[in-house]
Amino acid sequence: MESTYDYTELVDTLIEVVKTTTGLVLIESNSAGKQPDYSFWFYSFTSPYIPITNDVVNGEVFECVISLTNHSLSSLESLNYATLLHKKLREFDSRMAFYDKNITVVSTGKIGKRDSLISIEYERTTGFDLRLRIKDQFKETIPNMENIEI
Prior knowledge:
Layout: H1 7-22, E1 26-28, E2 40-51, E3 61-72, H2 75-88, H3 92-99, E4 103-108, E5 112-113, E6 116-118, E7 121-135
Parallel strand pairs: 1-2
Antiparallel strand pairs: 2-3, 3-7, 4-7, 5-7, 6-7
C-alpha cells in the first residue's frame, strides 16, 4: 500500500512543543473523552492540505493551518499563555523541533480572543493559527518499460 503524509507525527511534535513551552496539555478540539483541568490547549486542522503546486506528486511539499486555542477560567491567563506559545513558536528551538521532522513553521497568525458562553458563564479562550509547510513522503508508482519495439 502506498503511503502519504502521516499527520500523527505533526501532532505528536506539536504536543511536545506545547508541553515543553507552556507546561500544558494539548488535545484535539471537539474530541470525545474527559476534558483536562484548566488551563489546557485545543488544536484543530482548519486547512489540513493546501497544495503549493498541482503537478508534483512525488515528495510533494504542501502547507496546512492548525488553530491553537488556550482554554482557561481567566481571560488574562489565557492571553498570557497564548502570547507565550506564539512567541516560542517563532524561536529557533521550537522551529528546529519541527524542522527535524521535515516541517517548517511558515507563520503564526494574529492572537485573538475566542471566548465562548457555556451555560451561564464564559470559558476564556485565546488563540491563533499556525501555518506549516510539510514534505510528503508519497512516491508515485511508475511502471518500468522492459522492452521497446521500434
